[in-house]
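R.M. (postdoc): so does anyone remember the format we settled on? I'll just put the structure tokens first.
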């Protein structure tokens, strides 16, 4: 059975790109007669807020997207992450990293392309084990990883060149994004991961971590980004403010769904509709691989 999920970080309002990812994963699960789960990735404590998480859930509900089962908040999953670290240590895959906080900051949350993904050069690889209360990295095996993306097709990446040994536990006591996402996809039995193309470069690293933890590999889809009409990043005037900003300005949720559904290849024109109207026509084969820009009249 298909088990899909949408896993936002509650650090801001869901923009049109996030909503498109959410709708695509929901449509895929619904079209397959499967389950769809929402997971709140609030593992990076200081940047996340429960209020923003609730706001995001409200926007998803307004579009008709409801989790089949309780929403999983990563802040409550400490025990599972600790157990995963213990298993990795048992398999001699972890080493303590003494690199400075500044080096580590950019690795704390989901590393998006604009943060400038730089591989960890392995400076601390040979350090002796010093206990679980240190920053910890996963020792990656050599070689490339091949995987298939349901929209982009066959992929091959060398994780050592993209991320290097990923940080799994931070010196400040936070579990890192890679650990949380892989452990939770495994625990929730997720079979299909749908997310933005900005996370494509970290997929091979996460596959290595899955292998190290003995977890099954889900199918992956990396969707093109939603951009401003000129192809630039969504900004405050163009799409980044989310559903409330659009509805305040007279674009209702049916119009948003119609446009999102059109952008996912479910209908030939962006006619207003409900989420469930899009289910019969949804197929990954029809989802375009590139970026998509928002209509000019949605810029304020
Ligand atoms: N929480 C991540 C983000 O909002 C997404 C993680 C994932 O889908 O794998 O960027």
């Amino acid at each position: 059975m298909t088990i899909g999920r949408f896993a936002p970080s509650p650090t801001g309002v869901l923009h049109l790109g996030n909503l498109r990812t959410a709708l695509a994963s929901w449509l895929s699960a619904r079209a397959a007669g499967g389950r769809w789960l929402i997971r709140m990735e609030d593992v990076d404590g200081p940047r996340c807020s429960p209020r923003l998480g609730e706001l995001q859930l409200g926007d998803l509900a307004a579009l008709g997207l409801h989790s089949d089962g309780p929403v999983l908040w990563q802040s409550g999953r400490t025990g599972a992450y600790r157990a995963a670290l213990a298993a990795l240590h048992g398999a001699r895959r972890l080493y303590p990293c003494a690199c400075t906080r500044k080096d580590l900051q950019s690795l704390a949350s989901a590393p998006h392309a604009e943060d400038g993904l730089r591989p960890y050069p392995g400076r601390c690889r040979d350090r002796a084990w010093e206990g679980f209360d240190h920053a910890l990295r996963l020792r990656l095996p050599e070689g490339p990883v091949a995987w298939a993306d349901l929209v982009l097709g066959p992929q091959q990446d060398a994780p050592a060149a993209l991320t290097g040994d990923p940080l799994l536990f931070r010196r400040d006591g936070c579990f890192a994004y890679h650990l949380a996402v892989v452990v939770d996809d495994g625990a929730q039995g997720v079979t299909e991961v749908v997310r933005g193309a900005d996370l494509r470069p970290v997929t091979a690293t996460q596959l290595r971590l899955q292998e190290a933890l003995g977890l099954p590999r889900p199918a992956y889809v990396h969707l093109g980004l939603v951009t401003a009409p000129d192809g630039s990043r969504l900004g405050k005037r163009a799409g980044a403010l989310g559903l409330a900003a659009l509805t305040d300005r007279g674009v209702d949720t049916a119009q948003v769904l119609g446009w999102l559904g059109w952008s996912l290849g479910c209908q030939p024109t962006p006619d207003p509709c409900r989420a469930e109207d899009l289910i019969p026509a949804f197929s990954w084969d029809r989802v375009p691989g590139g970026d998509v820009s928002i209509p000019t009249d949605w810029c304020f």
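R.M.: ...and that's the designed sequence above, right after the tokens. Also worth knowing: The first helix runs from residue 16 to 31. DSSP finds nine helices and twelve strands in the chain.
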